[in-house]
């Protein structure tokens, strides 16, 4: 049953992507009623595994409450800027923006200010100064460093529990790291804090490779292909800033004879998307960190809807704002022991 559901979801995503290829990037969500406010939403690119779940949560939350104008910014900030202009001209009552370039917040804020519109950024955190520069702006996301710390704990615990993973017996972890988009607060913090946390637990490390796979599965696989060709079994751990790249690593490892005849390589990711949970169940990934797509999508919609209706952003919600005007949804470290928590969050 689960397999069938997963297949259906995959098929829907393929069909959606195919449909997007033929139409202009902007397409109003179905079922928009005259009585509900228009909300303009951008996703930095639809072709991002994790963001497709955030998008789904926004759409679910907005059903019958808002007319969502959803845009695929196709990983192009200029495209996104035009989409924002277009949505303003269509009379949206608020904006929910997943930036392409985290540094582009000021230009979006200027557009919103010019039209006297509230704007909720999500997933790519703008600088604190940008958030502070306009009263009617907020952020929904996470505390990025938390995911690195939790991933580091998983690496350290699993390493200590499996002495044979130290293939060259030098007591250090020879690791390779697949980094997300450079300059992205999540990528920078995960890269820094995962290693800090491993060291804090008393384990020495040696970095064999660190490169960006841009959150992308195919790029992750290509990098690991090259690294295996260069270092082979000198690599003792593969750390990925997200699950899509970790999944790329797993498929590279499989193609290189790992996970059979006693050949093994530990891999960790972040997000806890369903495909990664399957790999953890199968013993091909050690763990991941739940990046709660459902609650981040829901919080984004809740805030954008409230401000579109002229209400306080938090009215009637369970969220709280920190001193940067951010809602921060907690991460959860995920291994085989607590997979159910992650499964629930991606239902
Ligand atoms: C991160 C997530 C990545 C990617 C990125 C896009 O939070 O872990 O998989 O989706 O956001 O900004
Ligand atoms: Ca070693």
Automatic annotation (TrEMBL):
Main subcellular location of this protein, as a coarse class: other
Matching Pfam families: Peripla_BP_4
InterPro entries, per database record: Bact_Solute-Bind_Prot2, MglB-like_PBP1, Peripla_BP_I, SBP_2_dom
Location in the cell: Cell envelope
CDD domains (UniProt xref): PBP1_GGBP (cd01539)
Gene3D superfamilies, sorted: 3.40.50.2300
Extent of the signal sequence: 1-18
GO molecular function, one term: carbohydrate binding
Keywords: Calcium, Metal-binding, Periplasm, Signal, Sugar transport, Transport
Domain Periplasmic binding protein: 39-312
A single Gene Ontology CC term: outer membrane-bounded periplasmic space
Matching NCBIfam families: PRK15395.1
Subunit structure: The ABC transporter complex is composed of one ATP-binding protein (MglA), two transmembrane proteins (MglC) and a solute-binding protein (MglB).
PANTHER family documented for this protein: D-GALACTOSE_METHYL-GALACTOSIDE BINDING PERIPLASMIC PROTEIN MGLB, D-XYLOSE-BINDING PERIPLASMIC PROTEIN
Name this protein carries in UniProt: D-galactose/methyl-galactoside binding periplasmic protein MglB
Native source organism of the sequence: Geosporobacter ferrireducens
């Amino acid at each position: 049953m689960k397999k069938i559901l997963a297949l259906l979801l995959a098929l829907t995503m393929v069909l959606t992507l195919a449909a997007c290829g033929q139409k202009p990037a902007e397409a109003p969500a179905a079922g928009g009623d005259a009585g509900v406010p228009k909300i303009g939403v951008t996703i930095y690119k639809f072709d991002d595994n994790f963001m497709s779940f955030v998008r789904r949560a926004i759409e679910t939350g907005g059903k019958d409450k808002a007319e969502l104008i959803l845009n695929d910014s196709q990983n192009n900030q200029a495209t996104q800027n035009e989409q924002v202009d277009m949505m303003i001209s269509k009379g949206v009552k608020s904006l929910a923006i997943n930036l392409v370039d985290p540094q582009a917040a000021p230009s979006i804020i200027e557009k919103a200010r010019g039209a006297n519109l509230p704007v909720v950024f999500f997933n790519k955190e703008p600088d604190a100064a940008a958030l502070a520069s306009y009263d009617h702006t907020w952020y929904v996301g996470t505390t990025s460093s938390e995911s690195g710390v939790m991933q580091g704990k998983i690496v350290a615990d699993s390493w200590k529990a499996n002495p044979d993973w130290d293939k060259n017996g030098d007591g250090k972890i020879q690791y390779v790291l697949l980094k997300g988009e450079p300059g992205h607060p999540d990528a920078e913090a995960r890269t820094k804090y995962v290693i800090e946390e491993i060291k804090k637990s008393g384990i020495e490390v040696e970095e064999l490779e660190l490169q960006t796979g841009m959150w992308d599965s195919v790029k992750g696989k290509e990098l690991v292909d090259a690294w295996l060709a260069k270092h082979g079994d000198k690599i003792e751990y593969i750390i990925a800033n997200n699950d899509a790249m970790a999944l790329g690593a797993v498929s590279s490892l499989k193609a290189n004879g790992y996970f059979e005849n006693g050949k093994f390589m530990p891999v960790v990711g972040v997000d806890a998307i369903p495909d990664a949970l399957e790999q953890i169940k199968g013993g091909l990934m050690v763990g991941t960190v739940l990046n709660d797509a459902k609650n981040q999508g829901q919080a984004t919609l809740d805030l954008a809807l409230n401000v579109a209706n002229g209400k306080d952003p938090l009215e009637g919600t369970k969220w709280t704002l920190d001193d940067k005007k951010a809602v921060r949804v907690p991460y959860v470290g995920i291994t085989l022991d607590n997979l159910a928590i992650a499964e629930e969050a991606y239902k």
